[in-house]
Design goal:
heterodimer; A: about 170 residues; Rna Polymerase Sigma Factor, Chain: A; Arc Repressor Mutant, subunit A; globular; B: about 120 residues; mainly alpha; rod-shaped
Chain lengths: ~170, ~120
């Protein structure tokens, strides 16, 4: 695949990639964009090559997942986690209008519930429900067997439904 | 407990909210390229600073070495005589500069003997 075609494919998958990068970065938008920048450079410089063994998006999601994990390790090594804790006190955004409050609350409860799941469960649910991948494709992205992915999917879905149900009852 | 369709609906809401604030591909790619050129600068910068420091050290060392080495200026200073040196030569100064000998007169040095005069 030449560079022009690669750019076209990346551009097409861009919106999806941001969502997946956010999922891989604990929903931190800035970190997600930084990871995505690294991924784009890695792909366009030819340091990660698409070998057409899976769909382009599945392969790209795998690259994003590995890059995010690598960035997390680097951040941990450099002690940036502590700095981030100190810098996370951002000014609060102005209150949204009433119509938005309920949707915002639902999104917040979903994010909160996802954060309470095991990492593998969270990943497989994100890939299946958010990105509309099949469980088989999710397994390829996560680098696990299909059987393992199915187990994480079933357990994660049940746990998430319980958590969201509990949140609704409160 | 929540059913699967409700879960899908929740995820769809989350995805739509995320996409509202998603930067364009051009923006992300542009920032990536800017970051790469900045990193390249950072990578080259220590080399440039190191080379400049090495050149400065060599220049200082050469200047220092030159200031202490015998050069063309040094003999001129050594051979230089002050124009007023002649005033230090007083009459009879050769008497003070020579070792006196027993049985000889200082006058011998001042007045030539007949044998010396005969020549």
């Amino acid at each position: 695949m030449d560079e022009v075609e690669l750019r076209r494919q990346l551009e097409r998958a861009h919106a999806d990639c941001i969502g997946w990068a956010m999922a891989c970065c604990g929903r931190d938008r800035d970190d997600a964009e930084e990871v995505l920048q690294t991924v784009y450079l890695t792909v366009l410089d030819g340091r990660a090559r698409y070998d057409a063994r899976s769909s382009f998006r599945t392969w790209l999601f795998g690259v994003i997942r590995r890059t995010a994990a690598s960035e997390r390790r680097k951040a941990w090594l450099h002690g940036l986690l502590l700095m981030r804790e100190a810098g996370s006190l951002k000014p609060q955004a102005p209150a949204p209008p009433d119509a938005e409050v309920e949707r915002d609350s639902r999104r917040h409860s979903l994010r909160h519930a996802l954060a309470r799941l095991a990492a593998r469960q969270r990943e497989v649910l994100q890939l299946v429900f958010y990105h509309d991948l099949t469980v088989d494709e999710a397994a390829a992205v996560m680098g696990v067997t299909v059987g393992s992915a199915r187990t994480h999917y079933a357990r994660g879905k049940a746990r998430l439904a319980t958590l969201l149900g509990d949140a609704r009852e409160l | 407990m929540m059913d699967e369709s409700e879960l899908r609906r929740r995820f769809t809401e989350l995805r739509e909210a995320d996409r509202e604030r998603t930067p364009s591909f051009a923006q992300t790619y542009g920032r990536a390229r800017a970051r790469r050129s900045w990193r390249a600068t950072l990578r080259v910068r220590p080399l440039v600073i190191g080379a400049a420091a090495a050149v400065a050290i060599v220049a200082v060392w050469i200047a220092h070495a030159r200031s202490f080495s015998p050069s063309a200026v040094t003999p001129t200073i050594v051979t230089w005589r002050a124009p007023t040196d002649v005033l230090l030569r007083t009459p009879g100064s050769e008497l003070l500069g020579a070792m006196p000998a027993l049985g000889a007169s200082v006058l011998d040095t001042m007045i030539p003997t007949p044998s010396k005069r005969g020549t």
